[in-house]
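G.,

No rush on this.
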Amino acid sequence: QVQLVESGGGLVQPGGSLRLSCAASGFTASSYSMAWYRQAPGKERELVARITGAGSNTKFADSVKGRFTISRDNARNTVYLQMNSLKPEDTAVYYCCRIFGNYWGQGTQVTVSP
């Protein structure tokens, strides 16, 4: 059974940092591209970043380029999203996703506020 469990969200001040983790189980993570999406209140879910199975290729939304980094530790079946220089507009629920098969985690709330 495929499971994705996000953690690491919370409340942070503008300019701060957070690292989100996505623990995968039920499949071999290195075989799949993974992604982080986010959804702010009243807005559609949007792609934040994605990474290939081996971690050799990444892609970022323009709004987070230069501030966010996606990485993975396939030995731990875990994908990370390092978020730096956070802005209030980064406030959203962040979801981990296995692209093939459209599997999603439950989401973790990130709130950026003074």
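When you get to it, here's the other one too:
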Amino acid sequence: QLQLVESGGGLVQPGGSLRLSCAASGFTLDNYAIGWFRQAPGKEREGVSCITSSIDITEYVESVEGRFIISRDNAKNTMYLQMNNLIPEDTAVYYCNAADPRLRTNWGQGTQVTVSS
């Protein structure tokens, strides 16, 4: 069964950092372009960052460029999102899934990130 499980969220003060993890099972993560998405209260889900398969080209939405870093550990079949200099606008539930909508599996529960003083 294809499954993605997000973890690593929490409550952090503005300016703080968190590292999110996305553990894959049932398939090899490196075979796909995969990304992080987030959904804030009252807003639609948006793409945050993605990383291509094999050669690891990365892309970021403008609002997180320079603050977030996406990476993957193929040995652990896990993807990460290092989030630095967090701001309240980053508050959302974060999800991981395939970058190509045609290849996406069911959305997981996500991991809550709350940035607040």
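The CA atoms of residues 2 and 27 lie 6 Å apart. The first strand starts at residue 3 and ends at 7.

Enjoy the weekend,
O.
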